[in-house]
Batch of 4 targets.
Target 1
Amino acid sequence: MDLNSDLGEGFGPWSMGDDAAMLGVVTSANIACGGHASDPDTMFATLGMAAERGVVIGAHPGYADPLGFGRRVIPMEPVEIARMVAAQVGALQGVAALSGAKVAYVKAHGALANLAADRREVADAIASAVKALPGGLAILAISGTELEAAGRAAGLPTYSEIFADRAYLPNGRLVPRSRPDAMVHGAKAAAERLIGFLDTGLMPVVGGDPIPLAAQSICVHGDSPDAVAMAREIRVRLQAAGVVLAPFLR
């Protein structure tokens, strides 16, 4: 099982989360590429740290809305979304070439990922951009979504993720962040929920019975105050349960 986190989400002198510590825990890193966060220097530093630690690197494109941290939907046509994703991922690939790192996959961020979960035309736009870019990129998508289907329909290597620190609705979507029950708080609670999921294949949801999900990766958001502690607890608990932690891509 892979353990991933969204990193490189600072800008200029402002940093978010402890990327260096998180990169000592996770096996894959989704690095922001100038849309919702980041800049060339932040990308370069984060790429270098990830490559140094042997962490597999993914691009993390989102709406170009730093003030909203990419968590607000910006009205765009699918062709515009495709160009935006191509531009952001291409930017990270360019900086990666300077740092000696390699971008292996793409994971959409925030509101863009949530929209692509339900709207096939948005999912297809993301998949078309990923397919057009060099490097044989894969897609990491929220489990049970239209982006999964679009990636596979486009012939792309497509992998599924679940979230350690986010609550789920009965339809398999994430509880909106505007709700007080959107987050799973506490490393112990998050780890126990994941152990139960790996044992049964069923994810607990808010207001319903547990639902089946498939997953090759688990995400811990890097911007939470206790993100590193949660990731460490999850890693220890999973390994104690006999789960081998390894990147979903080599």
Target 2
Amino acid sequence: MSKAVIFDMDGVICHTNPFHSQAFKIFFEKRNLFPTEDEFMLHMYGKNNGYILSHFLGRKIEGQELLELEFEKESLFREIYQHHVTPIPGFLEFFHELRNGDFKTAVATSAPFANLELIAGTLDLFPHLESALASEHVSKHKPDPEVYLKTAKNISLNSSQCVVFEDSFSGVSAAKNAGMKVVGVLSSHSIEELPICDFYIRDYSGLEISRVAALLE
């Protein structure tokens, strides 16, 4: 197993963005703030909570306050999403084909580990992952490559042996900054809105693992 596929989570394994929007709307309405969907597109999707909260609340949110506000918002998300965990079409079939094809598999997300537990637990991914990293496991968030470099170290491979599936500008940038090949998942952004990827998919239906393996040849 000298090759690996590393998945981001939100927008890559599941279409969670609409549910994050719902949670943030409830969170911000409590504070008399009413962001539009366009504002979420620019300042929420693919961003870490520190950035999102600081942007919409209009001041730097960090330290203990960030932990408390993040917990409030992510708890809302999990409460809403626990009844809707559904993978992007073809994901589970593709994921298990990778395992049968001797790929290592991992998840590297900017979301809290509790969210990863909800999604990967519901989809029974953990027994089939060599690494599962979330926001608590890094000090620098995407587009910094830390989460991908740390994942490569966890699975004992070099960056040149890894292909990343990402859906956001910051996520694609992080994978490229780590020196990895990147497949862009067009779940929440268009090709024009992402850095250049090695190829793009809308979902995993019909995706052959040979196409991924070719990126590492």
Target 3
Amino acid sequence: MQRKQRLREMVAAIVERGSLDVEALAELFAVSPATVRRDLEVLEKQRLVSRTRGGATTHASFNDLPLSYKTEQDTGEKRRIARQALRFLEGARVIGTTGGTTVSEFARLLMDRDGLTIVTNALNVATYLVANPRLRVFSAGGEVRSSSQEAVGPSAERFMADYNIDVAFIGVDGVDATAGCTNYDPVGCRVNAVLREQARVSVVLADATKIGRVALAQVCKMSDVDVLVTDDRAGGSALDAIRAQGCQVLTA
């Protein structure tokens, strides 16, 4: 395993479990304790973890993994989800998107489209799609979060509220039948909520690692989501519970 990948997975493991000691990390990644300590030093400088005596915990200022750490995780599943989501473009003239790695994979599939208008708060999505002159791209302004490259805050919320959206494609950090769709960032969460409210149809794109996860702030209840598109690793019982909330579930 290359160091870049190990660092990503090390952060994810610490976030998932709250804390891990050096010996456990060394065993998990099949490296020496000395290597783990060097890796933790790098991650601490990036304010992703805090080193403790004998291990590490999530950094106090941690909000979400930077986009660069998430881009290469579960790439195959995210691409399948993106292709599955294309079916909801039929008849749509104006779509909205948030940011996130799965939605970004979906946006890549729009480059051969004609006559479509995209409203987004994700700078990476807008920058990518504007290269196609046959698309109209409207991008929100505001504070830009490095974890998602999304513009957030009151100006982004007001921007989203000005548009009538046929279909919204929304990325989230957690999907749970009881807690609904949730994100780590409560400020960005409100922008996502406005986009969903402005759309006739809302489609949540979330790989299986998000199913059953509950993040800090709620975007919406599951009963407010029309469609969830995930991948075939997701547990059947968790998806059945989501379906029971009135949300259509598709697996890619």
Target 4
Amino acid sequence: MSSLASNLSTRGQAEPRKRFSLSRTLALVLLTIMALLWIIPLLWAVDTSLKPEAETTTVPVSWLASHFTGDAYHNVFSTADIFRWYFNSAFTALIATVLVIVLASLAAFGLSRIRFRARGPLFWIILAGLMVPGQILIVPLFTEMQQMNLVNTYWGIILPQIASPLAVFIFKQFFDNIPQELEEAAIVDGASRFRVYWQIWMPLARTAISAVAIITFIGVWNNFLWPFIVATGVDMMTLPVGLATVQTSYGVRYAQIMASAVAGGLPVLIVFLFFQRQIIQGVAGTGLKG
């Protein structure tokens, strides 16, 4: 009798393990397929950029070439002011990221910790900004920048990109989860509201800061439409805008087009690979769970 019970118990434990192993295997296969779907176009772009120009349009299509060369990259970097565009993109993305973190966290702190009338409706109005397509704001924003004499300037590129409802939402979700007792203890000790925000809340919000910083940096770096409109001079172009103007002169020179695409996307890819853990932790820690 005891032997039968032991066999039934062993069989009962084996079935959940088997189901868990099967689900884990299916998840691994699915993730592998998704990873391949993401990485194959990237590898194809790199492969094409390293081919001689004459071999980029050969039929049948092949990953291999008679020899690999860096001529496409040499032509891209020698015929365009790409280093200036790199600087413009990095500078505008960094300044915009810092401003978004400061302004969004201040707004979120006020919405989360300061009781005032219409606080709820104000928060929903801010969230409504997530549903407004940026394209419909192009004309009024350009008119505003023109009246402020900020067209073709760094501030003209940066200022319209620092209004981030998503950043406010992320910070507010994080601040709402911080115990009220911390703020009360600090105020009892004589700390001001700003000191509570700066010396207590912000150090605790490192995961939220990381998530907002990376999302904002990548978004500003990749933004094409607004810099394309407001940056009227070649010296003020960001990298996506500058590379687009170069590509229009390439015609069907696919190696150079792919080389410019790789040159533009590589910095963002490196940032994401190095800080992907911070993105995941920031999103998970602020309540943005699926």
